[in-house]
Amino acid sequence: MSNRFRTALLLFFAVAGVASAQADGAPPEPMREELRRVLLRLIESGEFGKTAPQDIAFTLDAPEQRTGNLGLVVDSANAAHAADGLRVIAVSPGSTAQKMGLRAGDVLVAVNGENLAGLGPDNAGHALAAQRLRERVDAMADGATLTFSTRREGASLQLAGASSSVTLPPIHLRVGRDELLAALNGSSGRPRKDPAPATTGGGCGYVSVFDVAPRSQNIHGVHLLSIDGHAAGPSGRTNFRIEAGHHELEIAEEIERPYISFGSRQRSVGRSVKTLGVDVTANITYYLGAQLHPDQRNESKDGAYWDPIIWKQADTDCR
Question: Do 229 and 105 sit in the same domain of this protein?
């Protein structure tokens, strides 16, 4: 993983992760969307070379880290942009920078008397001044006076305020289909536990609708409606522990709109439902998917365009 890639993702967590974490550990949708945007920018910039999107996989680890909570976004794209100082692109509401009076469009000429203009590029070609600013802010104790020499619409200003910091939690991020499956099963091979009826002496297994199905093989996500005629469980649940033996699963396809050409493809609207019989073996997880038939993608009658399938099996310690 390149330093540029690692820095981009750590920056994402610094900006979004701390303020957005939920009590159950699941990232909220705005945080997921921002991460998607970061990955999109990295893919478009050629960070992953010719690697196909479905083959991109990595794990990002970072220890707990204290960082200055300045709340500034500056233009550090290249040294030329910062020849006369760092231009402020945005200021976060309620941040230290906003309380100091900094605004988008300001040019930061110096921080605590240290020059930020004309420092040239860093090793990646970005403005070295941005790195210098971050180092100086991170090194300050909470409550210490932070002073900026700035230019605003041709006028020189001195803005000051008390510095503050936040501590980012340790980061462990898995990206990619195989990485997600490994995270789901855990290092011991045991998936995330969900409430389920007690099993008999025949053991138990799992069925999963955790959607990492390979679109390159025309396999899409599904929603599990019922198991043997009983409601599968609350919305959002992805793993279901069931007794070993034969089970009848009622499954609704969740094929995205671009892949088919008829009807409303909003989630939970107009979905085709089919039944899949599964012979569950103890200590196996069965990943469910919707197999799209490309040559019948226009045939909505009787759901001819798809079939429910088990697209992957994995060893699991089910107790």
Answer: no
> Is 291:219 a contact under the CB 8 Å cutoff?
yes
Prediction pTM value: 0.45
The boundaries of the domain holding residue 77 are 64-171
**Distance between CA 192 and CA 51 in Å, rounded?**
30
Amino acid found at 52: A
d(CA 17, CA 94): 17
Angle between helices 29-44 and 3-12 (to 10 degrees): 160
Return the DSSP state at 16. Answer: I
How far is Cα 22 from Cα 179, in angstroms, rounded to an integer? 22
> Which residue type does 54 have?
Q
143 plus 238 within the same structural domain: no
Report residue 248 as tokens: 């009848």
**Cα distance between residue 85 and residue 108, in whole Å:** 5
Helix (H) or strand (E) holding 240: strand 239-243
Domains of the chain: total:
3
How would you classify residue 258: left for phi > 0, otherwise alpha for psi between -120 and 50, otherwise beta? alpha
CATH code, 137: 2.30.42.10
Q: d(Cα 96, Cα 142) in Å, to the nearest integer?
A: 11
Q: How far apart are CA 17 and CA 21, in angstroms?
A: 6
Question: What are 269-314's pLDDT values in tens digits?
Answer: 457 899 999 999 999 999 999 999 998 888 888 889 999 999 999 9
- What is the total residue count of the chain? 319
**pLDDT tens across 142-156, in order?**
899 999 999 999 899
